[in-house]
Amino acid sequence: VICDPFITFVPLSVCDKIILASDGIWDVINDNDICNFNNAKDIVDEAIKRGSTDNITCICLNIKK
Hints:
The mean pLDDT is 86. The protein is of the alpha+beta class. The chain is built from three helices and two strands, in the order βαααβ.
């Protein structure tokens, strides 16, 4: 956790999930690519596959109506 985190605001009608992840994820997966994953395990597995060398933590909240 840093004192000035990167935050993106989008209307709820645009997305169906909220992703909280450590920089080990964001170092290797960009904002647009991460939307292609269905759950946190897939995101973590992909970060490892892409060779992330930082701590890898992810929480994925589905907010479908």
